[in-house]
Specification:
It is built from two helices and three strands. It has 78 residues and is of the alpha+beta class.
Length: 78
């Protein structure tokens, strides 16, 4: 069984509203040096299916886990 982690994040140039909100909140709380905040998501799961876990995870990302028009992803398999 493989442990799979998929990191999904907005592509450069896509406005990250959540990231801007986090950045503004951190600045407001006194961390004025914070800039360029981006918010993403982490999806973790165990994979015991057929095939290479990395290849299958890529198929999952392309089909469901990421909106590849505006999001990129990175896969880790352990």
């Amino acid at each position: 069984m493989a442990k799979v982690k998929v990191h999904v994040f907005l592509k450069p140039g896509v406005l990250d509203v959540q990231g801007k909100a986090v950045e503004g909140a951190l600045n407001g709380l006194g961390w004025g040096g914070v800039s360029g905040a981006r918010v993403g998501k982490l999806i973790e799961f165990d994979f015991a299916g057929e095939g290479d876990p990395a290849v299958e995870a890529k198929k999952m990302c392309e089909t469901l886990l990421a909106n590849t028009v505006i999001e990129s992803y990175r896969i880790e398999v352990a």
